[in-house]
Structure prediction request, 318 residues.
Amino acid sequence: MSKPTIAFISQLPKKEQSAWLVSLAELLPDENIVLASDFTEDQKKHCRIAIIANPDPEVVLQFTQLVWCQSLWAGVDSLVNAFKFDQSVTFKISRLIDPRLAQTMSEAVLTWVLYLHRDMHKYLAQQKQVQWHQIDYQLPEERTIGVLGLGELGKACTARLKDNGFNVLGWSRNEKHLSGIQCFSGKQGLVDFARKTDILICLLPLTQDTQQLINHEFLHCLPKGACLINFARGAVIVDDDLLHCLDNGQLAYAVLDVFEQEPLSRHSLYWQHDKVTVLPHISAPTHVISASKVVASHIEKFRATGQLPPCIDFDLGY
Prediction:
């Protein structure tokens, strides 16, 4: 009896595709995982599962009998935008929820919060000006960190920050309750949350509601001299508004790991801005082995029971 076939649909470099195929094949010996480009037209009509990583939407649609697509990324906004209004789409999409990914993100969040908390950005500026000046130390519990987005990544980050002594707030679209964390929700909750936040961390998914959420109005709700860390999506921020707030002193500093255009244009003002750190989308890279184990467990369960993992809601966008 031949093995069932799973499509691997991706625009990743060949070396990365090969790493995924090897890892997944080791964990799923009863499956035949094949690059989309190696399918015949007839084979595409009989494929029920696809594993996707930065796929060409047109290629995904060639597999007309798909039941389920398992994404290798936590972010799915590009897939939602591609398929949301296509009436021919009947398959479900599951984003990657990997505990290792949450741990990696919380590590990055803690790293840059400590960088800002301990005034490293200010000392770097002083070095460039050949200045020797010691800045007064502030205790972690005297610094309020606000986390926008309380999904799996946000929960892991709030816990890690709390464990390191910071006063931590959280905001989410719907009401949530986390131990030791003051949580806000809704439009008025967003304003109240912002007014108390010294260092803002954005971990929101990109949806119709969150696009350009961090704009002039929102940024001016933050205390003067607040800092911003964006590890979510570039389009959550209005770039011109952020630059204006950095230039006029409303914000003291921004750490940006995500942008609307990636790689970031060489002409972007962010590159040379003395109050901005530019990172090349590295805050929480997917770990091939760890993620493969999650994906394999989902596929094994589906084969055994027909049950899908949690899938995204196209209306909500996540």
